[in-house]
Design a protein that fits this description.
The complex is a heterodimer of chains A (279) and B (301). The longest helix of chain A is centred in the N-terminal third of the chain and has 31 residues. Chain A contains twelve helices and no strands. Chain A has 279 residues and is an all-alpha fold. In chain B, the strands form two sheets. Chain B has a four-stranded parallel sheet with strand order 2-1-3-4, with helices on both faces. A four-stranded parallel sheet of chain B has the order 6-5-7-8. In chain B, helix 2 packs across helix 5. Chain B is globular. Chain B starts with a helix and ends with a helix. Classes of the chains: A mainly alpha (279), B alpha/beta (301). Chains A and B meet through helix 1, helix 4, helix 5 and helix 12 of A and helix 3 and helix 4 of B.
Chain lengths: 279, 301
């Protein structure tokens, strides 16, 4: 137990912080139907960092971070400009294309580096077990700022994701606020992927949000359920990883999957019962 | 009375065995050497398995627990474990194995390192291995250097066992020396032959046996080779009559096989670490296996 606390406390705290912001963003992402936007933005940010590295900056320098953030903002601009009101092309198509091209461009960029390609691979495979307390505090501070920003402008963000017509009716600029949404998303993703890796971040983003959306209406209730599920699944995943000595990130991802299946079965059972009663 | 003395001696002896020095090695090669030297006085645990690439390791909670309890941490150095070892040492919170402490041993300390970048090392140029090629355990002569360093550190940490460590070191050195002579004789006909390798991880082996590495299939790790690079490589192999492609048995066999097939040659998989294949449990067994593969490879081609 003492060992468990000593080694797993920081990773677990990191899970909580990550679930905190990602479950919220995930509810937006689900409503907008842009499920893989996090992968695309993470890939663009990694491309930015690769280019910074080629330009001579250290991978973990402030300059490299800012360049990767700028790249993520360019991605945000692309996503906000390609939100077509008539939906001739689903936004997922643009997101998929962006992901593939950014990943491929990353390979071409790495090819130009005389050496050093090995470090670049680490950009997308952060490992939650190695997280340190200063890192946890850093992301907690950053995400609190992003969360506060979303709270202040909640009317706009909510209308944009859930009631597009209302937003248009009130004269808010769709493109501008879409850009702001994706840009703040990029800020979160750029650091979370480095801490936890793409797989884990994707699970944090989507699984709790799916649970919340499935079981409740309204942002507040959905968020409460999403956080509850996310925190519980993180605790379970971290404990399992420690008890069975399995790679932590992958164990937590699988736990999230299992929790979703269990909840889904429960929901289905309740649904069937209700129908039977009606008949 | 005599019984009493004997009993207390036995108790002392078994006590040392049960609470032996806890040694943690990052790679199985270092662990195998440490075990040969420490014998029953040490308990050796390995972090990376022989069939894993120590550059990339999935983080498991037990790694931290191992480091936390270690009396001696032996690592390869030259940035082989740079992606995870510093974090692991930080997370393990064990003052005994921090850099600079007697419990922290960089096995590369007295190794004659190959491929140290010449001239000014400019980090902006990229720098996988600014300290040189880290795969030095594949030259058994380096095994002697590593053994010396480990034995001396074991002695410092556990003076009571000094005699045993010295004896084990003597045995290890004698055995390896004899085998070295034997291996070098067997590999004599290969001296000066040219080969192509998959990655830059067989340089020390080639250096020891006098093989010439004419080129690499993938000269940047993780970046698939360009068609032109492959075409040039095949052309060079045809021109210089190079028929042998060597690669680590943990790597994918497809690319080496294809390149070898294009020149009518052979691709030979080599175990590159203790534990990389079943039946390779000690450092000398690793080279027995490598020599057998090389002989078969060159013999047939």
């Amino acid at each position: 137990m003492e060992d468990f606390l000593r080694f797993m406390a920081a990773p677990f705290a990191a899970c909580l912080v990550l679930v905190g912001i990602h479950a919220y963003l995930g509810i937006h992402v689900l409503a907008r139907g842009v499920i893989f936007v996090d992968l695309a933005l993470a890939q663009i940010a990694a491309l930015g960092r690769t280019l910074a590295f080629l330009a001579g900056y250290e991978l973990d320098s402030v300059e490299a971070y800012l360049i990767s953030l700028a790249a993520a903002f360019i991605g945000a601009a692309v996503f906000s400009l390609t939100r077509l009101r008539q939906r001739q092309i689903p936004q997922e198509a643009v997101i998929g294309i962006t992901y593939a091209v950014a990943a491929a461009a990353g390979i071409l960029a790495i090819d130009q580096a005389p050496h050093g390609a090995e470090h670049l691979r680490d950009l997308l495979v952060g490992s939650i077990l190695w997280v340190t307390w200063p890192q946890v505090l850093e992301i907690a501070g950053l995400y609190a700022l992003v969360g506060l920003f979303h709270w202040i402008f909640r009317a706009r963000f909510l209308a944009l994701s859930f009631a597009e017509e209302e937003a248009v009716g009130r004269g808010w600029s769709l493109r501008w606020w879409d850009f702001i949404f994706y840009a703040s998303f990029g800020v979160v993703i750029t650091s979370s992927v480095q801490v936890a890796g793409v797989l884990l971040v994707f699970s944090f983003l989507i699984v709790p949000a799916v649970c919340g959306t499935l079981l409740a209406q309204g942002l507040g209730r959905r968020l409460a359920i999403a956080w509850g599920v996310g925190f519980a699944a993180s605790a379970l995943g971290c404990s399992l990883s420690y008890a069975a000595d399995l790679p932590t990130g992958a164990t937590v991802v699988c736990t999230f999957g299992a929790v979703l299946v269990a909840l889904g079965l429960g929901w289905l059972g309740r649904h069937l019962l209700k129908r039977e009663r009606k008949v | 009375m005599n019984y009493l003395i004997l009993a207390s001696l036995l108790a002392l002896g078994s006590g040392a065995g049960a609470e032996g020095l806890r040694v943690v090695a990052t790679t199985p090669d270092l662990a195998a050497i440490a075990l040969a030297l420490g014998g029953e006085r040490v308990e050796v645990k390995t972090i990376a398995r022989g069939d894993q690439d120590p550059h990339y390791l999935e983080a498991k909670p037990s790694f931290m627990s191992l480091v936390n309890k270690a009396d001696l941490l032996i690592y390869n150095g030259l940035e082989l474990e740079v992606g995870w070892l510093p974090l692991l040492v930080q997370g393990g919170r064990n003052p005994r194995v921090l850099p600079g402490q007697p419990g922290n041993l960089d096995a590369s300390e007295n190794i004659p390192v190959l491929e140290i970048p010449t001239g000014e090392v400019d980090r902006s140029q990229g720098d996988i291995h600014p300290l040189g090629n880290p795969h030095y355990t594949l030259d058994p002569r380096n095994g002697l250097v590593i053994a010396g360093a480990i034995a001396s550190r074991l002695r410092d940490l556990d003076p009571a066992g000094a005699e045993g460590y010295a004896r084990n070191l003597g045995l290890f050195e004698r055995e390896l020396q004899q085998l070295l002579t034997n291996w070098e004789r067997r590999a004599g006909p290969l001296r000066g032959r040219q080969v192509v390798t998959y990655h830059q991880n067989l340089e020390y082996l080639a250096d020891w046996l006098g093989l010439g590495v004419a080129g690499y299939i993938e000269d940047k790790p993780g970046v698939p080779p360009s068609p032109r690079h492959l075409a040039e490589l095949v052309e060079q192999m045809q021109r210089d009559k190079i028929g042998l492609v060597l690669y680590a048995s943990v790597q994918d066999a497809a690319a080496p096989g294809r390149v070898a097939a294009q020149v009518g040659g052979k691709a030979v998989a080599l175990p590159i670490a203790v534990g990389a294949e079943p039946g390779i449990a000690t450092y000398p067994e690793l080279f027995e296996a490598i020599l057998a593969r090389l002989e078969a490879g060159f013999g047939g081609g």
